[in-house]
Specification:
alpha/beta, 7 helices, 7-stranded mixed sheet, 21% helix, 14 strands, 24% strand, Metallo-beta-lactamase, Chain A, 272 residues
Length: 272
């Protein structure tokens, strides 16, 4: 059994057996002007409050790719929790620039990493969706010669992964961008499939190939919130312009009419 909470953007908190695994946390939620003109800094007070609220051990933080909305908060959280990191060489660069020298599982694609608490993660090679003007934003690797804090565009993509997590007897696949490499999914299955919504219209065969190959029991769309604004305490989550969550759900339902699609709420815990 696992309890999963959507943290907004592509962030997940997966609690099982007295420990917690975090994937792509982005709680800082910098505003539009910050993203355009300023260097980005993690929100220390918010992140410390989040760690205090976990109330237990953090087994690891997994990073699917190193854009700012997936990786900005990771070094600070790693320092606060002392947990290991799992991610790309670009994440290792970011961790090193942040003063983190140990506890890093560097992946290049296909690795299976055993984690504390009995969980494991397989870092499936993947592809980032084309979002801005039909392009992949900020391609390339994080520059090890650069100095923190970075501007948004300095958080380069790095290697792109689709982590498959086994925890508490449940298999979870996290696709943090609207793309995939179907050949890398052959023979794999999952119980729960988190699928990025923005960019889905620009990616041929997405999300159909992910669903057909992984055969999930439930699909959970995410990353559709406007991450330049705060998550509300109540009421609907403000969506990214053009994400078209309803169209995405309709596409999934047409492809797999009997498949459960569950829209997450960051104020609720989903138990599986």
């Amino acid at each position: 059994m696992v309890d999963i909470r959507w943290l907004g953007t592509a962030g997940l908190e997966i609690a099982f057996a007295g420990t917690t695994l975090i994937v792509d946390p982005y709680l800082t939620r910098a505003g539009k002007l910050d993203l355009l003109f300023r260097r980005l800094r993690p929100s220390a007070d918010r992140l410390r409050a989040y760690v205090r609220g976990l109330g237990g051990r953090v087994s690891a933080i997994v990073c699917g790719h190193t854009h700012f909305d997936h990786a900005l908060d990771i070094p600070f959280l790693a320092q606060e929790t002392g947990c290991p990191l799992v991610g790309s060489p670009s994440l290792k660069t970011l961790a090193g620039l942040s003063g983190i020298r140990a506890g890093m599982h560097v992946c290049r694609g296909g690795e299976e990493v055993e984690l504390p608490g009995g969980a494991s993660v397989r870092m499936i090679p993947s592809r980032h969706g084309r979002v801005l003007f039909g392009r992949v934003p900020y391609p390339g690797e994080i520059d090890p010669r650069a100095g923190l804090p970075f501007k948004a565009g300095q958080y380069r993509l790095g290697a792109m992964f689709m982590p498959r997590i086994e925890a508490g007897g449940v298999s979870i696949v996290h696709q943090g961008s609207a793309g995939c490499l179907p050949e890398e999914l052959e023979g794999l299955r999952c119980d729960i499939l988190f699928l990025c919504v923005p960019g889905w219209k620009k990616t041929p065969g997405y999300p159909d190939a992910c669903i057909e190959l992984l055969k999930p029991g439930v699909v959970i769309p995410f990353h559709f919130d406007d991450f330049t604004t705060e998550l509300p305490g109540s009421g609907p989550v403000r969506r990214l312009p053009g994400s078209d969550l309803e169209g995405f759900i309709a596409r999934v339902s047409r492809h797999a009419p009997s498949l459960e699609v569950r829209v997450p709420d960051p104020r609720e815990v989903m138990r599986f």
